[in-house]
Amino acid sequence: MAVGIFDSGLGGLTVLEAAQKRLPDVDFIYLADSAHAPYGVRTADDIYELTCAAVLRLFDAGCDLVILACNTASAAALRRMQEGSIPEGKRVLGVFVPLIEALTERDWGDNSPPCEVDVKHVALFATPATVSSRAFQRELAFRAIGVDVEAQACGGVVDAIEDGDFVLAEAMVRLHVDALMRKMPMPQAAILGCTHYPLMLDAFQEALGADVKIFSQAKLVGESLADYLTRHGDKIGVGEPAYLTTGDPKQVSNRATQFLRRQITFNAA
Q: Is 149 helix (H, G, I), strand (E, B) or coil?
């Protein structure tokens, strides 16, 4: 049995790399829906249909557990999927929970009432679809009170990263951080609410300032997955990782290799 990791593009490779380092003996199958990326500008219904199709493809490939390493898919599709479209014996998890656990310092299984936390002013950088869903704020409200979240829709950043234009991506990060800080001049923490954004971590940190603590998902999701697999040993498999894409395998392989600075070979999904 393999663990599936899904993203609309290549950003989820940051999660995959962290998970592989933390869990070197686990099979992973990565699926990038490159033919339909980016998801961040699509409607909720469109995102849901595309996410369901991708998850079913990973189930067919032998995955019992799939991680939606895509904040947009987690925001727009996960809850709807969990309410009725996941086959028995299969599991789909998102990327919000580890972030909220880290921000609030509370385990997800802690069902006590929401309480105050140390961080009061949080900047959220995400795709337009994730921002409009307000999914992060909704999930956070179940765990914490008194937290002011200011969200900034970072249109165009994912496209620039997917195109390999990191100069443009850095410039757009600075513009989006400036826009957010006009609304929240002194954030205490920042959430990088897209799995592409860890690739721009230094640019976000420089623009925000050294005093702003940045919560990036890749490592947090890797640790959370390790904890989950410790408690669900039947989900662990042994074998070779696989990389699948709905786009052009050669083009996607070249971009993935550039992202991770090691050879990655994608096959057609």
A: strand
